[in-house]
Design a protein that fits this description.
Elements lengths: L1 H16 L11 E5 L4 E5 L4 H4 L1 H44 L10
Antiparallel strand pairs: 1-2
Helix pairs in contact: 1-3
Length: 105
């Protein structure tokens, strides 16, 4: 049982650390110049930027389920996952919504 709890705790720590590993990019355009013209190429946003909402809600759900399971067993895990999903959805969509950032070069 101790190994199982330790494994779940390590998985939760990795899930929390995942968003911090995403690359911070300051702009997504590059200019390529040739003799005839200049072309603008857009890079794709990072995985975290594209799936930010899902990742944040998944992390909140997992953390809530883990804490609920430690406190209240199976029923606590169910309640904790619901509370974690609700709290992380509130954070993701209302408190810190996505914003478009435009940079001047």
């Amino acid at each position: 049982m101790k190994k199982f709890i330790a494994t779940l705790m390590m998985m939760a720590m990795m899930a929390v650390a995942l968003p911090f590993t995403a690359n911070a990019q300051i702009g997504n355009t590059r200019y390529y110049r040739s003799r005839t013209n200049t072309t603008r190429v857009y890079k794709n946003p990072s995985i975290y930027r594209r799936h930010r909402n899902l990742i944040n809600i998944g992390i909140g759900t997992g953390a809530g389920a883990l804490l609920g399971a430690l406190v209240g067993g199976k029923k606590g895990a169910l309640i904790g996952s619901a509370v974690g999903a609700g709290g992380s959805a509130l954070y993701t969509y209302k408190i810190k919504p996505k914003t478009r950032r435009y940079y001047r070069r």
